[in-house]
Amino acid sequence: MKKSVFTFTLLGILSSCAFLNLGVFRSGVQIPPGEEFLLGEGTKGAFDLELENTCYCDIPVETRNAKGERTSSFGLAQRGTVKLTVRAGDHAVLQNPYKNTVAVNATMKEQVYGMRYQALSDSVQVE
User: Does the pTM of the predicted model rise above 0.85?
Assistant: First the structure.
């Protein structure tokens, strides 16, 4: 009897731990040289995003509105992590102005729609 109770208790603990990550989306993003990655263009509401820079260079990050106008910007420090709330109607943009591919791990608590790559604008110089 004790073995049955122990087994069911252990199974209950393990299954509850498995559900803790339910609804969390993780993605490794590799951005080719001279391109930018747009995330959340099709998402209507605000969303939270955690970005982890896995490279040894700073990565420019912006938020833009539906017209493509920049609403905020910052540099994601090398090997750094930042939590970002993207406002409703905006999307996140991760830029790669370098000659090598950069990588970022993105974690979202809800599904975010609209992900694509595009060439950097002419105003950004490739280093």
Answer: no
Concatenated DSSP letters of 32-89: -TTEEEEE-TT--S-EEEEEEE-SSS-EEEEEE-TTS-EEEEEEE-TT-EEEEEEPTT
Q: Which residue has 């073995």 as its token pair?
A: 3
Give the whole-angstrom CA distance, residue 23 versus residue 13: 19
How many domains in the chain?
A: 1
* Domain annotation covers residue 115: yes
Residue 77's domain is classified under what CATH number? 2.60.120.10
Query: Using an 8 Å Cβ cutoff, are 111 and 25 in contact?
Result: yes
Domain assignment of residue 55, yes or no: yes
**pLDDT values of the chain reduced to their tens digit, one per residue, 127 residues:** 555 545 445 445 545 444 455 678 888 999 999 999 999 998 889 999 999 999 999 999 999 999 999 999 999 999 999 999 999 999 999 999 999 999 999 999 988 889 999 999 765 556 6
Q: Which domain holds residue 99?
A: 24-119
